């Protein structure tokens, strides 16, 4: 398989084609045929309400009508407001999710639960008892800060290498990605970077650009790598693996998830795919199969969930979560997920193929560390 870098703009194209496809504005790349059609407004409105309520299709429709009727002197100011409103509209949901009652659907369960003649201790209890973690620095570095020590640090490194080796055996190409990214790239991936509910750390101060943020996942770094690139369909699918530190400003307040779980920073092995539109649904299942193989090989009891719309990020068309049973806490906790983002990210990031067509992108987490 030819990797993405050697497939960028190899074909002969006219200067006008390059100018349009490589430098076309984000406004022009949005799917106005769908967003601007009043026949779709009701479906989009319902999709927004079933998700997190972010986005206003009525505002988009109103501004689009004003833009279409405005003179050249008025268009620029309306265009900016219209683009901002349109970018808040989430991806179209998979048709199977529309009539879901808002609960995850268990697709599959794997593994056998072990029977203990005692109450299993939780990860935090065992790791502290054996002196393999340190979590008493939160007064200096904030809640959920931690150190992994000695054999536990060795285990983390071994599991990362094991996950990477598995992905390489499946044809993934390994890349190293930056942890500091432009705010716009993170937003184009579907994450909100502003406001009190943002999960993104923003950088600031005299020595930093306020439009830079800490990456929440290697998916964002890989997306930045592919931004403004023209690919070739003959090289699809492109499958990329990356290992990175990830940063999330929000942590869980659920009692079962206390300790070193859903922390502010963690290590993750990421899967990223670029697919032809007609192949992304099958590609998502392939990512899910790899995750299942990985967790089964570790002897974990897992369940695969088809997630409802209320649990989808703005970028996701469909998402599967994988949870494991934690005997020390007697609950199911999320280990990873995989999402088909269709052309949502490609349009915003200007990732194209074969003369300006937009591919579909898929992302998934093979492994996150630490995990209880």
UniProtKB/TrEMBL annotation:
<dbReference type="GO" id="GO:0005524">
    <property type="term" value="F:ATP binding"/>
</dbReference>
<protein>
    <recommendedName>
        <fullName>serine--tRNA ligase</fullName>
        <ecNumber>6.1.1.11</ecNumber>
    </recommendedName>
</protein>
<dbReference type="InterPro" id="IPR002317">
    <property type="entry name" value="Ser-tRNA-ligase_type_1"/>
</dbReference>
<feature type="binding site">
    <location>
        <position position="363"/>
    </location>
    <ligand>
        <name>L-serine</name>
    </ligand>
</feature>
<dbReference type="Pfam" id="PF00587">
    <property type="entry name" value="tRNA-synt_2b"/>
</dbReference>
<feature type="binding site">
    <location>
        <position position="270"/>
    </location>
    <ligand>
        <name>L-serine</name>
    </ligand>
</feature>
<keyword id="KW-0030">Aminoacyl-tRNA synthetase</keyword>
<comment type="similarity">
    <text>Belongs to the class-II aminoacyl-tRNA synthetase family. Type-1 seryl-tRNA synthetase subfamily.</text>
</comment>
<feature type="domain" description="Aminoacyl-transfer RNA synthetases class-II family profile">
    <location>
        <begin position="159"/>
        <end position="372"/>
    </location>
</feature>
<dbReference type="InterPro" id="IPR002314">
    <property type="entry name" value="aa-tRNA-synt_IIb"/>
</dbReference>
<dbReference type="InterPro" id="IPR006195">
    <property type="entry name" value="aa-tRNA-synth_II"/>
</dbReference>
<keyword id="KW-0436">Ligase</keyword>
<feature type="binding site">
    <location>
        <begin position="263"/>
        <end position="266"/>
    </location>
    <ligand>
        <name>ATP</name>
    </ligand>
</feature>
<dbReference type="GO" id="GO:0006434">
    <property type="term" value="P:seryl-tRNA aminoacylation"/>
</dbReference>
<feature type="binding site">
    <location>
        <begin position="248"/>
        <end position="250"/>
    </location>
    <ligand>
        <name>ATP</name>
    </ligand>
</feature>
<dbReference type="GO" id="GO:0004828">
    <property type="term" value="F:serine-tRNA ligase activity"/>
</dbReference>
<feature type="binding site">
    <location>
        <begin position="334"/>
        <end position="337"/>
    </location>
    <ligand>
        <name>ATP</name>
    </ligand>
</feature>
<keyword id="KW-0547">Nucleotide-binding</keyword>
<keyword id="KW-0067">ATP-binding</keyword>
<feature type="binding site">
    <location>
        <position position="217"/>
    </location>
    <ligand>
        <name>L-serine</name>
    </ligand>
</feature>
<dbReference type="InterPro" id="IPR045864">
    <property type="entry name" value="aa-tRNA-synth_II/BPL/LPL"/>
</dbReference>
<feature type="binding site">
    <location>
        <position position="248"/>
    </location>
    <ligand>
        <name>L-serine</name>
    </ligand>
</feature>
